[in-house]
Amino acid sequence: MPLTVPELAERYETRFANALLKLWDQRRKAINTGRLVAAVSLGADIEAERYLTKAEIPKPVGGEFDPDDLSGLYQDLIQEGANIGLQDWGFQYSFTLNNEAAIKWAESRAADLIMALDNEVRETVRSLIAQAQQGDFTVKQLARQIEAAGVGLTPAQQQSVLNFQRGLTSAIERDLSPKWVKDQWSLSPWSGGKLTSDRVTTLVEQYSGRLRKYRAKNIARTETMTAAMEGKRSLWEQAKQRGLLSEDQERQWMTAGDERTCPLCEPMDGAITDRGTYPNGSDGPPLHPSCRCDESLLFRAENNPRFVYG
Ligand SMILES: [Zn+2]
Fold first, then answer.
1. What average pLDDT does the segment 230-254 reach?
2. The pTM is what?
3. Omega before residue 286 within 30° of 0, cis
């Protein structure tokens, strides 16, 4: 059975998510929490800000994280997406995707993603510093919070990590029983009795690790779909340039057609466009994060290229 674009994307999802987790690990190590917190506690805002500039989240070095990992994954996806585009088309025709364009697309997509994630880290850490300065928590707690929630989480996820941490810390202060704590947050039981601040650190770390994984998977799902689809469309574009497909070749939107199809995509099932955009204004799937829609060329009997080219 030939692969579809959503199936191809799914095959790459774990590898892509792992590349993101590796990136975030590298970023977490790069933030000098000690120096940052020291600067904040001295009220040295400008200095603290300096630790958050680009220079402080350095380009990865020596084997730790290779940004080409992401770029390489994007390139593979484009290539394989192009193969699917060829197979959808139905020609037995050998094509090589214009590699220079594919590499350029992959590199700039990877660079944009890394930049967006790095900007997010800076925003998050800034907002944690601001909260500490407003007295929401002590400067001493700040380091732990940056480590737990500073990298790779959305603001909402970050907030839920902080709430969890606050809840556990206050359970220690109120001397609540381990059973109460476990039931309260549906935690798996631990041996060794009392809740200690070390245990809180571990529990918070586990929780934010889970959220980070979940987030990485969500980003990976969208990015792998986007790249695979990009490959498929690049192939079609190339075929147009070579005069093998007409400029107004129709394309058709295909939803996954199951109960998980979202209300945004459902009305698009079977929608047709010739050049440019679909009736909903989009260039084609993916339309939203985690979209599982696909697209194929639509050949009508009167202009079927199989017939024309025999
Ligand atoms: Zn969709």
1. 88
2. 0.84
3. yes
